[in-house]
Amino acid sequence: MLGQHSVPFWSPRYQAHMCTDLSMPALLGYFMTMIYNPNNVALEASPITSVAEMEVGEQLCELFGFKTKPANANDPTPWAHITCDGTVANLESMWVARNLKYYPLSLRKAMDDADGPLRFVPDAFSVRTCQGRLKPFRELSAWELLNLKLKTILDMPARLYSEYGITPTWLQDALDGYNIQTVGKDLLDQHYKIGAKNTRYFVSGSKHYSWPKAAALTGLGSDSVVNVNLDVNGRIDVDKLEAQLEKSLKEEQAVLAVVAVVGSTEEGAVDPLRKIVALRQRFQALGLSFMVHADSAWGGYFATMLPRDDDDDDDDPRAAMPGRDLGDGGTDGLVPDLSLRVETQEDLFALRYCDSITVDPHKAGYVPYPAGALAYRDGRIKNLVTWTAPYLSRGAEGDANMGIYGVEGSTDFSALWAALSLPSDDFVCVPFNMLPSEATGRAEAVEEEKQRIRDEILGKTNAQIVSGDRGRKPGDKTMALLRALGSDLNINLFALNWRYPDGRLNTDVDEANYLMSRVIQRLSVDSPDDKTTAIPLYLTSAELEPQVYGGGCLENFKARLGLEHDTRESLLVFRNVVMSPLASFSTRGGFINMLGDTLKAVVAEEVCQKRNEDGPDYHSFWVHGTEDVFLSYRPMLNIAKHRQQVILGVELDAAGARAYRQLAGNTEDEIVLKTSHKIDLAGLLAVFQNGQGQDDDVVFRGNLATRSHGVVAAHVRVRVTRVVKNRPLNRGAQDDAYPSGFTPFYLYGTAAEQHMDHMLVQSPNISLSAGSVALALSDNGGGADAISAALASDNGAIVTLDDVHEAAMQPFSPESLERPSFFFRPGQSFRVSVWRDPRGVNESARNMLADLRQAQKQPLAAGTLTLGDDVVVDVDKTNRDPFRDSGDAKVGRWRERFRTVGRGI
Predict the structure, then answer these.
(1) Residues forming the active site
(2) What are the boundaries of the region Disordered (predicted)?
């Protein structure tokens, strides 16, 4: 089963998740070590693998530019260790940041308490504040204690030993009743009058989910994790980060750390690390100090692509990457330093100035799951999370007992996506990262640059590109364009949109998402019956949510796709992670171009323009009323021709009226009128409302039918006399959430007889319609007159079921209608309020309900509404998608196949 149905990560056709073939040394090491099952928590349980972990940790430190062999033998050395994954590494880094921030507070309290174990430390013991002023430690304010530099804090134990003979072992025992790991954060906060919300941990909006989890586990609380919005490139917005730091400084909110994401898992973005490090320097001069952590679980291994140079100034991040000679490359295949943007190289180079770094070898390190790692620039920091005294571990080397520390005991493809679609195609492919020409704002310049990509990059090796660049000015070189394409690393994010036959771009986000969902279904495995060998290209998808990408990034991407961008809808996107070196090796054979052609062919087959066509079609209505007849339209949210909520007042011809009155009240079936021929319903209603047509222009023919009797009157002449509602139901007209705290209905009819239709403000939804409802008002009669006036007005009325909470019940399934608790049944009574509809007949209802009660203050009337026998419900047709295959219990089939294997063993 595994051989037949596992995803072929090793194939260059697989371009989806962060998975590919594993390296042979990693696999062999994994297999061999499992046999011996070592435990690196202590040297005696793992004499060889503990040393191997030390060696690997040192190699990782060197990779990030940490000085493993400092010029001064007394300087601290870096340290790194292995964790099970990046989540645990991130958790440990936050644990360290918390302990570091509170260590001076614990030390000071141990000195200040009358019976404190460190009360004998002389008043002359002084430290430098982060602003460089030398002050007696006992005179520092709580704010100054919270903002000491990392090195100042880590130097204290050694200084207490060298100046006063206090050994690290005794110091740890003395602080046991004072440190945050023993007494907790709350006691120290109370003692120093630090507010509950006065600690902050700044992270990029593209953060991994592990950060709020880590804040909860470390006792900081997830509210202390502050998201900083992204810029249009998906990187942390440095200006907004600076504003947040300014606010923290002004309000004296301690900042534990700023996390830079070096390789976001969605779009492969590298936060501007060099600017973040520079910000720390600036704010330390102002009195605010914090750690800088690089979450480079994905991007850390890309530091291998930097030139090795140990001559940089390790203490001055301003001496980082800018102006360094990176060479011209020019060898065949992938040229390491040339496949990265210049700014990405600079930010990777700035890793050496971070205090801690997370990296996942099981991602870009090509080793099996699970494998994470955490590296510290100053290795002494690990002593803040150890549960034994430093310098006392047994064995050959002090740090060999690794387990006592920590929580545990693509540019070719970016060019392809950028130039994939032609103006003549019925779809567009837009990369998340903007092309250089997009800055001009001219569509012609963008198309010219796309053509240049097709001519000078696609199908070419790096050697051919470099050869063609000889003699060109630096700004004109094709290699410069290649480096500017795509994301900061090797994750390419892109999205699709489709065109109407006349060339217009679709503007509905929901419809663009629909196309992409159909394509991803073709290019991924979602059933045990799928043949993995038959899928020509593997991609994966993600959602850009407004909560994370809002504030400019998501809106900009939607606008570039030609979509509405003023609504808070998530956007489905494709992710292409270039992990397989075989894809690049196959450039000469046109392999990448072949994958592009494959995607184009699939998209061409899945562009579903019929779903969004205008024009004539068959339409059906529920029929309500006795004297005055009303038609309640049966919408279909997945077909444009039927994506509206319509309520009509009509006149039936004599035969039709007679047949209808014979049925009304004498059948338990719903009475349906279906047009007997295709009509352009939208056009017919427009003619009626404009008042420009003749009588015959607002007439159509329909068949009156029930489930039991079939067609009881054919070709009934139906004349529209009033349009009560004609509201769009496309995604741009929908609310961002279902109604909360009530369920809304359109109330319509006459003073003598009222009917109601459920307001559809989100998708998927349920159609609920009831004729001849009974309203019992709680006032003395004034409400009835107000309701009658509203029903006769152009806008009409809305009735809310005040004790029925719609959001809690959505989305409805066909099975939910059979439950005894289903609320919409004949004879049911509800507490209701009746309101004026504030919008016109044809206006969208988007965001109307949120302001309804606040705007009108008081309803027209309140009371009880009771449903009669004329009650109809539909969830199937309303949500049916005739262009999508119906699914089945795919996961259930997988489980049954495993049970079959189990029964056979």
Answers:
(1) 391
(2) 309-332
